[in-house]
Amino acid sequence: MLADRRARRATQECLSVDDILSQENFQLTATGESRYSVDTVGSLLSGEWPPATPYFRESQSSSGSGWNTGNPSPQLLDFPIANKPIASFEDASSTSTAWTTTISFNARTQPADLIVATPNEVPFDVNLEPKQIVEVSNISKAQSILFKIKTPSRYRQNYIITPNKGILRPQTCVKISIEIPPQETARLIQTNTRQSTKTWSHPVMLQLLKVHDDVYDQLDCMEYHEQQQLHATLWYAADPWRISEKMLTFQVKCTRLSFLESWPAQATSPITPPLHMTFSTNPFDASVHSIRLHNVNGTACIYLHNRTNYPLAFKVMTTAPTRYRISPSFAMISPKGQIELRTCFTKSFTLSVLHFHEQIKLKDTFRIESIVLCGLTPTIEAHTRRSKDELKRIVQMMWSSFDEDIKDMTYLSCLVDLPPQDAH
């Protein structure tokens, strides 16, 4: 009876793999080849296995029915599991087979090896440059990477990061803006000791996660809140071994100049004007109250003299900023020193004058605001580890916050008289 049963089984028709796949009630899904939905969040992550497991993937072929199967060809891999060699499989084409199994060496690459962040150490100057740009690039040719920036909670309020998360397609980069908000800059300056510079080093974590390209395609079709929900779900569903980390460092430099916060009595109510304007380098010449411009390409020059024994900072303002170019518009004059102030027309005004065929007469006013920096001594530069140019820029950045009572105002009239021939 056993022999008859074996004979009947041998005479039955054998079905090929293609016949099985053609059945209506048979469904086969190839991981990495199908479209994914938001509901199947686990499949949106990169289809790699833990590092202690060999990496396999399914691939297509262009011959026959469109699918291949691999014939076992034992070859030792360069990474063992449980002290045993692992056999790999090579593709072998066939017109009547359905699948192939190959080793995916790309899955062994960590996301941190595919991402480059420039710069790795980000310098911030609270007084001068509270905003910086970090460029994050994906150097992979075929792998999309999900990224997220995390800062420790104790100084999370110090930075505004835009964007703080996203996805990087292969061979693409994103520019991330990192800024210290104004309220935090003021707080950091106040926490600093007087007349000194302090530097903080803050570590920041850049988390990375491999995802399929289908995630990027779906994000393009989603609303903003749906994108945020998908991002949160992907990170929540990711296994810890899938997440790779890359560390950045924020170097924060902060200087507090206490002499700009409190002013002595002689600075607030000077007996004589600290600034003296003349047409020559002689500080004893008569004071200048007006300048004249008779040529469209001409320049008017005057000299500003510091009469005090302290450094003096000044800023020039005008009622017609689009008409005049003043150099320098902000500067610092050393004690008993002087500086040349040059005034000419802007290029836009010069071009517009050429369309007028009549005499042009104008009268504008310049206001020169000056402050005596009594506390700016040579030791400040050494204590704060700041150059003279940096100290000047700090004073310029704080100019609008200074009280008007400590500013000395000097007014200068500018008379313009252009003849008709200069208008052609």
TrEMBL record:
Residues 55-74 are annotated as: Disordered. InterPro entries: Ig-like_fold, MSP_dom, PapD-like_sf, VAP. It comes from the Eukaryota. Its main location: membrane. Keywords: Membrane, Transmembrane, Transmembrane helix. It is found in: Membrane. It is a single-pass type IV membrane protein. Gene3D superfamilies: Immunoglobulins. SUPFAM superfamilies: PapD-like. One of its GO terms (cellular component) is plasma membrane. GO terms for molecular function: FFAT motif binding. Residues 106-253, 268-417 form the MSP domain. Belongs to the VAMP-associated protein (VAP) (TC 9.B.17) family. This is MSP domain-containing protein.
